[in-house]
Amino acid sequence: MCPRTVVLQARSFAIKHPGEGVDRNISSLTGIVRLLSAIPKSGVLIGKQLMDRVEAFLEKILNSLPFEAYIVKNGTLSFCNRPFSCSIDGKELPALVNSRDDAESECYFIANGEMFFLRRIHLDLVYSVLFLRRPVEFQLSRDPLTGVLHRECFAKVGHQLLDTAKRLNGILSILFMDLDGFKAVNDTWGHDNGDLVLKATADRISTIIRDKDFCFRLGGDEFLIILNEIKDPMHSCLVARRLIASVSEPIPIAAANVKIGSSIGISTYPHDGATIDVLVSKADEAMYRAKKLGKNNYQIYHIKSES
Questions:
Q1: Sequence ranges of the chain with CATH classification 3.30.70.270
Q2: What is the DSSP letter of 142?
Q3: Which range has the worst mean pLDDT, 13-17, 43-47, 53-57, 67-71?
Q4: Measuring CA to CA, which residue among 85, 63, 61, 72 is closest to residue 123?
Q5: Which residues fall within 8 angstroms of residue 242, CB to CB, at 6 or more apart?
Q6: Which of 213 and 30 is assigned the larger pLDDT?
Q7: Helix (H) or strand (E) holding 157
Q8: HEC profile of 223-254
């Protein structure tokens, strides 16, 4: 394990995400570098004594940082600095840490109704260190009916996620979902029951996607889903299948169970485009192709869908 790596990563994080100012962050980190001399350089301490000493040193580093951070030991939360301990439940983060094999990774995700930026480094087989912040420029608003994210914050979130994917050579997918048969529910059972169907649908979507994925209600019966930091484009197809199966399950309203379906169009960065607007447009085209092919299915964007 190399605490010096923590210092270098913290310095980089402070420059990219200054919070209250780069000067304050760099000033705080200057003192951390001096602590490196505390690492034992002889064989006097061995085994558990050495590990305890290095772990205590890591805690000193994190306590000196002006942003939130914590240590994951063997996949579970081991230590969090003071700012972190009062902002978020650490139980939501180890899954993000353990889902990636990369030595370093970063992503955006939602927890407790807020958007967070997470940078993670693996120090060795036992320890990982995470740097965490809440971007002040992202005040996420939610759709008052369904509770998923409001369309007004799609552009900011989408551009940020795409910028991150470009920087890390990652993969990102857009799923454009339109409900099938929803108009008949409104016409037959009324708008109040239609609202219940929309709420149930949004709940099912939220259950299927991960914490680092994002769902937005565009309005009416349309939803946009961003699958963030996926390893393979085919992952979006698996998610689409699960969404279609879940949404088509009966929904209890009034004295009846109603059934709707969903048509989903999929586009993926970098294969289908390099901007959010282009990706959304192509996912929309693929969704209409799914409608033409019988509804309640998904289609991946390809050039032929334009014809």
A1: 149-306
A2: B
A3: 43-47
A4: 72
A5: 208
A6: 213
A7: helix 154-167
A8: EEEEEEEECCCHHHHHHHHHHHHHHCCCEEEC
Dump the DSSP string for 164-223.
Answer: HHHHTT-EEEEEEEEEESHHHHHHHH-HHHHHHHHHHHHHHHHHHS-TTSEEEEEETTEE
pLDDT at residue 269 greater than cutoff 70: yes
**pLDDT, mean of residues 205-209:** 95
Mean pLDDT, all residues of the chain: 79
Average pLDDT over residues 97-121: 67
Q: Residue 84: which of 74, 75, 72, 73 has the closest Cα?
A: 72
**Which CATH class, in words, describes the domain spanning 149-306?**
alpha beta
Q: pTM of the entire structure?
A: 0.69
CB within 8 Å of 260: residues ≥ 6 apart: 179, 180, 181, 182, 185, 197, 201, 247, 248, 251
Size of the chain, expressed as the number of residues it contains: 307
Alpha-carbon gap, residue 62 to 291, rounded angstroms: 52
Q: Does domain 3-133 have CATH number 1.10.620?
A: no
Q: Hey, which residues does 222 pair with through a beta bridge?
A: 178, 219
Confidence of residue 111 (pLDDT cuts 50, 70, 90): low
Ranges in the chain annotated CATH 3.30.450:
3-133
